[in-house]
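Structure (tokenized):
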């Protein structure tokens, strides 16, 4: 059986995941549209590919960590795509956040080509990807899970077996992203309110992170809002996409999602204002613009 690993998507999270595979002694050939990302993989001992086809050549396991379902399709099925170069009977792992229906359909398309598939979105962010402590929500056949699990252990602290059918992992991630997006949006609203009311936002942040209203997203993203550092770890546009998936899922189920809809509008407003490619904590800029304040400036003045 082929033991090489192909890795497509070496962005904010994929880079750390691929590096941990290399650190664990796994042979990894990776590709990203950004040359610098490929060079970083080579610098830690991986092999930098010049195309998705080269990354997949002869691999028994292909890991895909791109941003959207369209990017996944292009990488797998597009001109010069990865599938034609995989080893027979290979396993494809999709870590991207995609609509559940896409993951379900992808599993069927890959099965028709004699390939196994694991629908396996992740959570934990860039720091967890680099630290090897991600949580993975995996759904797929026993064979797909068995083929992928040893590699996944290189960058995950917890691998949750959600079910045996592709789409179930993405359904879990869909509901998860509702909470993640709403938490970021409400963190921005609360910090902006405190600032407008004359409270030191850094002090407010300190109180909340030690109080009952604390959440991981408030602690992580709130720190960016207070410091004014919007270096993208997960961009605003990612939550425009992810909360869009949530709303589409709710619509299909005839399930009301007023909180998700409100948060989605906030991320859309941030993207429309030109902040789509910076960190998702930049949703606070919408409130800053409306209220004529700056959370970071207020924190510095205090």
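Design, position by position:
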């Amino acid at each position: 059986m082929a033991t090489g690993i192909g890795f497509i998507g070496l962005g904010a999270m994929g880079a750390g995941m691929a590096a941990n595979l290399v650190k664990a002694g796994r042979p990894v050939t990776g590709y990203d549209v950004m040359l610098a990302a490929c060079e970083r993989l080579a610098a830690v001992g991986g092999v930098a590919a010049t195309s998705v086809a080269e990354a997949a050549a002869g691999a028994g396991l292909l890991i895909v960590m791109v941003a959207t379902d369209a990017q996944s399709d292009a990488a797998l099925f597009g001109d010069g795509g990865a599938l034609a170069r995989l080893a027979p009977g290979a396993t494809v792992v999709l870590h991207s956040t995609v609509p559940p229906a896409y993951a379900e359909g992808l599993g069927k398309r890959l099965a028709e080509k004699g390939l196994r598939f694991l629908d396996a979105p992740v959570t934990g962010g860039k720091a967890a990807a680099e630290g090897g402590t991600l949580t993975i929500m995996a759904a797929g056949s026993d064979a797909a899970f068995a083929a992928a699990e040893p590699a996944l252990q290189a960058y995950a602290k917890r691998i949750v077996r959600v079910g045996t059918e592709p789409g179930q992992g993405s359904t879990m991630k869909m509901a998860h992203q509702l909470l993640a997006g709403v938490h970021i949006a409400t963190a921005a609203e609360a910090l902006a309110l405190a600032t407008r009311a004359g409270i030191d936002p850094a002090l407010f942040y300190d109180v909340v992170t030690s109080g009952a209203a604390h959440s991981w997203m408030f602690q992580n993203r709130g720190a960016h809002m207070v410091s004014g550092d919007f270096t993208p770890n997960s961009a605003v546009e990612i939550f425009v996409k992810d909360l869009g998936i949530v709303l589409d899922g709710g619509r299909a189920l005839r399930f009301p999602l007023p909180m998700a809809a409100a948060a989605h509008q906030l991320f859309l407003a941030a993207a429309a204002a030109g902040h789509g490619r910076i960190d998702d904590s930049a949703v606070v800029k919408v409130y800053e613009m409306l209220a004529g304040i700056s959370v970071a400036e207020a924190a510095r003045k205090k």
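Reviewer-requested clarification: Residues 168-196 form the longest helix (29 residues). The CA atoms of residues 247 and 261 lie 7 Å apart.
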